[in-house]
Amino acid sequence: MRSQLSGPPPERGLFCNRTLNLRAIKAVGYDMDYTLIHYRVEAWERRAYEHIRDRLVAQGWPVGDLQFDPALAIRGLIIDTEKGNLLKANRFGFVKKALHGTRAMDFITQRDEYSHVVIDLHERRWVFLNTLFSLSEACLYAQLVDRLDAGVLPGPMGYADLYEHVRKNLDATHMQGQLKAEIIADPERYVLDDPETPLALLDQRNAGKKLLLITNSEWAYTEPMMHFAFDKHLPQGMTWRQLFDVVIVSARKPEFFTTRSALFEVVETNGEALLRPHSGPFKAGTPYFGGSAVELERHLGMSGDEILYVGDHMFGDVHVSKSELRWRTALILRELEDEVRAIASFRSTEARLAERMVLKERMEWESCQLRLELQRRRADYGPRSDTPPEAELVSRLGELRESLEALDAELAPMARAATELSNPIWGLLTRAGNDKSHLARQVERYADIYTSRVSNFLFATPFVYLRSPRGSLPHDPSLPGGTPVFPAADGGGGMADAE
Q1: How far, in Å, are 72, 114, 208, 431 from residue 212 at the CA level?
Q2: I want to staple 89 with a disulfide (CB 3.0 to 4.6 A). Which of 58, 239, 438, 451 is the partner?
Q3: What angle do CA 472, 474, 477 make, to 5 degrees?
Q4: Residue 353: pLDDT above 80?
Q5: How far apart are CA 321 and CA 63, in angstroms?
């Protein structure tokens, strides 16, 4: 185990959007799947994919040869169910990259389809991939669009009908419990063991914080999975159930945060779990089914910014608990570790790219000035000079054009490599071209902090004061030692101290 005093590697940091004093947090709630328990994404999603595909085969669809492609989809993409496309959008909702089915759209087609479209996730047309559980669904849908276009699927059917059919079969797979039964039977195959997570929660509990488990998974799945992931790493004689002050299963998030539903006690009898209506205070060590956040707040005697909720689902965990209850929020993005490492490995190339782009912008600026000077001379208007002669301006403009073409040839492979970091099709999770991705905007807006795994709290301790960085704007200095916010009185360019 890495020493806490040495600090975490960069990819395991806690990244702060809004200042958060963890000492002021009285209760920490956790989701389970992909939050407290991390799965081997490719193994889980491949098996989920196979279950859906096999259901379609049983319904007579000619899709038995399809195989899961782990690179085809990433979290944060958007499915356009009207047109059968997978999209990556920037923070403003403008489409920056598009696949129709599994095929990349060329520039002209993408422009024609989306130049006048701004994605609004409130519209039913768009499906946002909120979590890693969405990858199998998106992969299969994209492949089925290819089959639909080829005319080999049952019909008549449109792209929206196709999506609904995939979604219905995915829900049926989870409802029937076949996949989860396989996970319970062989957890080593699907679960990434992390002995640091129980220790991080023990630190929080012993620092006086109430710990809450609020998961959509049912008790029959939650109990064996938490036992597998936690009990072997807890002090002797302690089980995961003793770690949490409140355990709520089948919570139905996001409705758990927005509506009031009946609360049931899970009663274990002869190896079976039965439900008994419950009213009054929660009992320690007893799991509950359903209920609501309002009821939980009343039991805890806490509300709003006294509670931190940690989950992996952008909408169901973070967005709704923030917007409806004003809980503090933490988003778990396991992919962040690969992303941070990829950015670090690209740093030298990125520096070279930035340096050459500065030169490109200077040459473009000079070229624009020369073109304007020639335009004014030929149209005989505006302030201008007769020197140097026009032939000299034309010659210099030609030199700049040739230099820019050569520079573009040098920049092209570096720029292309920048768009393929982490994923050869979609690039970085948090970037869309040179801008923030739509996912990054959601993270920025609703997650007070974000990190790759719960055990990263171990390095921060339960007493950390997390401070957000100073917000950046396009006119801010982009390099260390750039234009100061408040120029020093002596003109030296130093940064003035400010509270």
Answers
A1: 35, 43, 13, 33
A2: 438
A3: 70
A4: yes
A5: 39
